[in-house]
Amino acid sequence: MYPYIQAKSTEDLKIYAVISYGLSSNTYIIESHGETAIIDVGYGPPHSNIIETLGELKMSTEDVRKVLITHRHRDHTRDIKRLLEENDNMKIYIHRNDRDIVMENLKIGKDRIYTLYGDENVNVGKAKIKVIHTPGHTSGSICFQCSEIIFTGDLVFANGEYGRTDLPTGNHKELIKSLERILTLNINAMLPGHGEIIFKEARSHIKLALKNAMRKQATKHDNN
Ligand SMILES: [Zn+2]
């Protein structure tokens, strides 16, 4: 019902992508040696249905202990509540700066939260996922890097698009710095929070986004 793409398949790592539909963000499922993690859960029915998608993939919510969230927005987080009810051992991994608002909006207890600060690793089976703090779209926005793949949330999208910075805690200058930061990483594929996923040469898409964001910054200065 919610079509998915197998974005990566090796012996140690499988990644499935459910591309956004309606109000929902993209959601990603990572599987490595019997452990499953989710990156962004989406808005929930009828726009997305992460629980149903896991079922279609013959995966169980019982195997999901880590739910990684790129940032606070509802299109990425709203279905957390329904998911947490499925498995008492499941925890939400979210950056310190975006944590409290999500806990408050979705009424999530402290015991279900694992706070991220940036630069730590989260292990899923044999896969190592690096947390990169990339503020700009929101102050607690993070990217996740898993070998040559980067999950960018709403920092940057395909074809030079980037996340808006006019919502609470958004900051255009920080977004530019965050784009510069991820350009220093050794990456090839980009799995963003919305729209098309990029299987190779992601850096060219990010470079274009940086150019576009810098141009916008320059225009802002002209107006001031
Ligand atoms: Zn967003």
Description of the structure:
- With 224 residues, this protein is an alpha/beta fold.
- The chain has one domain (4-223): Metallo-beta-lactamase, Chain A (4-Layer Sandwich).
- It contains 6 helices and 12 strands.
- The protein has helices at 50-56, 74-77, 80-84, 96-106, 172-183, 202-223; strands at 4-9, 14-18, 27-32, 35-39, 64-68, 91-95, 113-116, 121-124, 127-133, 142-146, 149-153, 189-192.
- A 7-stranded mixed beta sheet has the order 1-2-3-4-5-6-7. Strands 8-9-10-11-12 form a 5-stranded mixed beta sheet, with no helix packed on it.
- The chain is globular and about 55 Å long.
- Residues 71, 73, 137, 154 line the site of zinc ion.
Put the structure in a nutshell.
The protein has 224 residues and is an alpha/beta fold. It contains six helices and twelve strands.
Low-confidence stretches: none
CATH architecture: 4-Layer Sandwich
Q: Report strand %.
A: 25-35%
The oligomeric state is single chain
- N-to-C CA distance: 49 Å
**Portion of residues within helices:** 25-40%
Bound molecules: zinc ion
Count of DSSP-assigned helices = 6
* Widest beta sheet: strand line-up: 1-2-3-4-5-6-7
Secondary-structure map:
Layout: E1 4-9, E2 14-18, E3 27-32, E4 35-39, H1 50-56, E5 64-68, H2 74-77, H3 80-84, E6 91-95, H4 96-106, E7 113-116, E8 121-124, E9 127-133, E10 142-146, E11 149-153, H5 172-183, E12 189-192, H6 202-223
Helix pairs in contact: 5-6
